[in-house]
Write a structure and sequence with these properties.
The protein is built from 20 helices and nine strands. By secondary structure, it is mainly alpha-helical. β2, α9 and β3 form a beta-alpha-beta unit.
């Protein structure tokens, strides 16, 4: 039998002195609570607290890191549990186990191994021969009370968990949790208005009708749209939200005059706006959201530079978030100048910047965060939240902004059991980087351990105003 094991020194340097330093630093933070200020786990999982049914539904189908790589090896998405006619979970699991080899060397392999060993007690490496045995064993574990969502929340050591929510949501699951005396965790919503900033979408008018229904007001003008969004932000804040989240195709922003804004809105609403008009309207709305954040204090997270739904046939059959969003080159310095001119030194405004274009780490993002009090850098995410990607980020920005103008780690995951695995990778990678600074005489060991502890828990609480 091929055993599945976790090396206690995984991700630490090979050189013995550096490894011992990294191990010492990591021990300081290994059991610290998890602060997850940016993620996509549904609050309904915790409010309903229903058992997960099987390993495929838990580990494979919701994790687009997993499904996209298997699809790249020729596995149809239907066989991974997606789409209108998905394969049964046992078949999905068999497919996953047959392709375990595809994850060698990837961060997904590290996360999956940690999930299987630590969370689910599995010590056998997945393969075709043991697929059914593992499926039955994990399914039996999942039926027990110790692996229900709320029990996992506490066993993972989560202190606070942020979800991602549409502005039209009534936040019913959040309100259920808040009113439940048996619930002792903290789950907060995050205001994600991308559907209403995507002004070129064919169903934008329908989306505005949904927002109108939620806000109780007609949206027949640009001003009405802004007021409706302000009202929903206030509703989110009343229900625990501390942050907003935006994923436009670029970071462009523009302060529009009321007359121009209304004309662009009318053109978009009636379908006569050209691409330039739509881009200006989207950038004007992003500027408005920055203005709102400068007033209501909700932290503005911005992660531009991704072309969503790159493969149209896949989108039409399987929908969004199915693994075919592809990064673009990004520009921040000129794009954000209107926002930062207006709000960059406003103490109420806070902007956390993310990118999938790591060429901007040292050229643009670190200098922006190194001047503007409002700007913080989010960690590498998506294609870059790997051990090497996290190290490249630290090496690119730390000599300009140190550690305390970054946000702390975010897991950005829909796969619940991967939360502790991802945070463990981040903590080990940071311990490795800090060990290098200690070994080079750039930082005393006691200060390195203080840094590790601070960036693990207190920094994300502070940056995302969760304290």
């Amino acid at each position: 039998m091929s055993r599945l094991e976790l090396d206690p020194d995984r991700l630490f340097p090979a050189e013995q002195r550096l490894r011992e330093l990294a191990r010492t630093i990591h021990q300081r933070v290994d059991r610290r609570p998890i602060v997850s200020p940016h993620g996509h786990v549904p609050a309904q999982w915790l409010s309903a607290d229903e058992p997960f049914t099987d390993p495929a539904s838990l580990l494979v189908t919701p994790d687009h890191y997993v499904t996209r790589l298997l699809h790249a090896h020729g596995v149809p998405l239907r066989e991974l549990g997606l789409g209108p006619d998905p394969a049964p979970p046992r078949e999905v699991w068999r497919t996953f186990c047959r392709h375990w080899w595809a994850f060698r060397g990837t961060s997904s392999r590290t996360w999956l191994t940690t999930e299987l060993v630590d969370a689910l007690g599995i010590d056998r490496r997945p393969d075709a021969d043991c697929a059914d045995e593992l499926f039955d064993k994990i399914s039996a574990h999942l039926a027990g009370s110790e692996l229900r969502p709320r029990a996992l929340y506490h066993s993972f050591g989560i202190d606070v968990l942020a979800t991602t929510d549409d502005p039209a949501s009534d936040l019913g699951a959040h309100r259920t949790l808040a009113a439940d005396p048996s619930w002792s965790g903290r789950v907060v919503p995050t205001f994600r208005p991308d559907r209403y900033l995507d002004v070129g979408s064919p169903d934008w008018a329908t989306r505005l009708d949904e927002l109108a229904g939620a806000s109780g007001m007609e949206i027949a003008s640009y001003r009405a749209l802004v007021v409706a969004l302000e009202q929903r932000r206030s509703y989110f804040a009343d229900n625990g939200a501390t942050a907003t989240d935006y994923g436009p195709i670029d970071a462009g922003s523009e302060r529009l005059s009321p007359e121009v804004a209304e004309a662009l809105f009318t053109a978009a609403r009636t379908g006569i706006a050209d691409d330039g008009d739509l881009a200006r309207l989207r950038r004007g709305l992003l500027f408005e959201h920055a203005r709102m954040s400068s007033e209501d204090g909700l932290v503005m997270q911005l992660h531009p530079g991704v072309l969503r739904n790159h493969h149209r046939p896949t989108f039409e059959r399987f929908g969004p978030d199915t693994g075919h969003d592809i990064p673009l080159a990004s520009e921040f310095t000129l794009a954000l100048r209107p926002i930062l001119d207006a709000f960059g030194t406003n103490p109420r405004f806070r902007l956390v910047l993310f990118t999938v274009d790591e060429t901007t780490f040292s050229r643009e993002l670190a200098p922006l965060a190194g001047f503007y009090p409002s700007v913080f850098l989010g960690p590498p995410w998506w294609f870059l939240d790997t051990p090497d990607g996290l190290l490249r980020f630290r090496r690119a920005v730390t000599d300009t902004i140190g550690f305390y103008k970054t946000s702390g780690f975010v897991d950005d995951t829909r796969a619940f059991c991967s939360i502790p695995a991802r945070h463990d990778v981040a903590r080990r990678t940071d311990a490795r980087y800090l060990a290098e600074l200690v070994d080079a005489g750039e930082l005393p060991l006691d200060e390195a351990m203080d840094v590790a502890e601070h960036i693990t828990t207190q920094l994300p609480l502070d940056v995302f105003r969760l304290t």
